[in-house]
């Protein structure tokens, strides 16, 4: 496991090496500012080498043509190794990302589940036998791996979101160039070590780290990459899609969100308050599916806001390594400044601040860390803080009158990733769930993401799905097979 102030390397073609130019950049702990590692600063030539290694591994055929059952065993071995090292991996994620220890430990369980799920899916990427076009033919389809995958992951869930891409890509028989976010590269490096130990052949998984935007850009542009799997902001996702179109790469995009919690007046108030609190403040609000808009029916508005405010005051903000902490650090200084600016925008536009809106007062060694207090505003649906993704622990409360009003408000967004609906009227809850235009709706729960349940968005929240069995198709090509079985030889020209 990476020790503090280590010097990391790139994984290319099964070998660990420094960047070609010898460059590094410093990675630090956002909670304390302490240096964690000197990380290899890959250049375009390093990306070229990683892609060449992935291309060679794919074209040689050892991995894509390997029996699916054998690939499954290797992916399952990765799950077992991650489970064995989950404590150390969780702590590394906490120090690199700033998330709380309890959150990181929960993620490790989900990561193990992800690899186990796709280990099982490796043998179930079925083709079909289809009705023949003529009586003298057999017709079928099979699924073949799409090729070399460029996997670009963000900083909010570094190992989890890398795994959402690496696990199905490996299971399908693809080779991969994985680029972690510059701010959180350390668990991706550990994942590379685990893959080699599990038996993933050299060149099948390559890990390149770097601090420049050009690194990801070149991966998207690279003519030898067949597919891009990207998670990040909607603005960057649009650039990725436009760039990948120049080489007609397959693309899946899991992008931003401004997800609602819709709370009706017949909801279990205690459960809805607790669920909405978790839905926005877990991972310090740094999650694309955070339920950052809480839409409240008028009859319970005041009671809900009062109860939510009371519970929020009990949240512990600070030391991410303390198991009792609820809200950890903001991962990057740029994100900390963005959250601050949105709170200022909310006040300028006339939203009513209820609590928070500033960094908390913390003792050493966290005085120089990047923290933000849980924050809430009463807002108008037209306010920017109620429409734009903040990606921090900031919630807006908006009032509605009836079911039609609730659906209209929920859908009045450029995004469509997730939602929660809170009502004890199960008929109404399901009507609203069907009417809300987003990829995942959780009824009477804040939990919406599980291996085996497809996850992805409508509208500007992206396209494609992760985590489901259908995800295997996005890492596969469909090949049609037609076999002539007639007794007479074919003679179309009759000459």
Description:
- The chain contains 14 helices and 23 strands.
- It is of the alpha/beta class and 495 residues long.
- It folds into 2 domains: 270 residues, Aldehyde Dehydrogenase, Chain A, domain 1 (3-Layer(aba) Sandwich); 184 residues, Aldehyde Dehydrogenase, Chain A, domain 2 (3-Layer(aba) Sandwich).
- The strands form 6 sheets. It has a 7-stranded mixed β-sheet, sandwiched between helices. A 6-stranded mixed β-sheet has the order 10-9-8-11-12-22, with helices on both faces. Strands 1-5-4 form a 3-stranded mixed β-sheet, with no helix packed on it.
- Strand 8, helix 5 and strand 9 form a beta-alpha-beta unit.
- The model has no long low-confidence stretch (mean pLDDT 96).
List keywords for this structure.
495 residues; single chain; Aldehyde Dehydrogenase, Chain A, domain 2; 14 helices; 37% helix; 2 domains; alpha/beta; Aldehyde Dehydrogenase, Chain A, domain 1
């Amino acid at each position: 496991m990476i020790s503090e102030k280590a010097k990391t390397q790139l994984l290319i073609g099964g070998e660990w090496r420094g960047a070609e130019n010898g460059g590094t950049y410093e990675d630090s702990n956002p909670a304390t500012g302490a240096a964690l590692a000197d990380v290899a600063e890959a250049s375009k030539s390093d990306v070229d080498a990683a892609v060449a290694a992935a291309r060679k591994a794919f074209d040689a055929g050892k991995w894509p043509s390997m029996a699916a059952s054998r690939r499954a065993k290797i992916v399952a071995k990765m799950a077992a190794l991650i489970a064995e090292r989950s404590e150390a991996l969780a702590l590394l994620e906490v120090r690199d990302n700033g998330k709380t220890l309890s959150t990181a430990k929960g993620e490790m369980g989900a990561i193990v589940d992800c690899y186990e799920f796709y280990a099982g899916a490796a043998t179930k990427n079925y083709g079909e036998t289809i009705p023949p076009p003529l009586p003298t033919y057999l017709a079928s389809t099979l699924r073949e791996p799409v090729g070399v995958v460029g996997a670009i992951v963000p900083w909010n869930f570094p190992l989890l979101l890398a795994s959402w891409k690496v696990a199905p890509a490996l299971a399908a028989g693809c080779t991969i160039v994985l680029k972690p976010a510059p701010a959180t590269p350390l668990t991706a490096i550990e994942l590379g070590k685990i893959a080699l130990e599990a038996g993933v052949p050299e060149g099948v998984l390559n890990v390149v780290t770097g601090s420049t935007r050009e690194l990801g850009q070149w991966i998207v542009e690279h003519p030898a990459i067949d597919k891009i799997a990207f998670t990040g902001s909607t603005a960057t996702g649009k650039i990725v899609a436009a760039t990948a179109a120049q080489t007609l790469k397959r693309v899946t995009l899991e992008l931003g969100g401004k997800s609602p919690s819709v709370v009706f007046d017949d909801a279990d108030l205690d459960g809805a308050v607790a669920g909405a609190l978790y839905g926005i403040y877990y991972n310090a609000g740094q999650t694309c599916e955070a339920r950052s808009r809480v839409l409240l029916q008028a009859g319970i508005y005041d009671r809900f806001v009062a109860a939510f405010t009371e519970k929020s005051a009990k949240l512990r903000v600070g030391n991410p390594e303390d198991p009792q902490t609820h809200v950890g650090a903001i991962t990057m200084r740029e994100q900390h400044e963005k959250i601050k600016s949105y709170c200022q925008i909310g006040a300028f536009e006339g939203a009513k601040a209820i609590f928070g809106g500033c960094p908390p007062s913390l003792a050493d060694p966290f005085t120089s860390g990047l923290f933000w207090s849980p924050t809430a505003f009463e807002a108008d649906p037209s306010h920017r803080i109620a429409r734009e993704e903040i990606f921090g622990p900031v919630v807006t409360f908006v009032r509605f009158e009836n079911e039609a009003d609730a659906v209209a408000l929920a859908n009045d967004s450029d995004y469509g990733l997730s939602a929660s609906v809170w009502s004890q009227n199960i008929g109404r809850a399901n009507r609203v769930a069907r009417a809300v235009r987003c990829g995942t709706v959780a009824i009477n729960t804040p939990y919406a993401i599980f291996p085996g349940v497809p996850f992805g968005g409508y509208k500007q929240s992206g396209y494609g799905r992760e985590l489901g069995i259908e995800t295997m198709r996005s890492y596969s090509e469909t090949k049609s097979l037609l076999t002539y079985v007639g007794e007479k030889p074919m003679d179309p020209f009759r000459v």
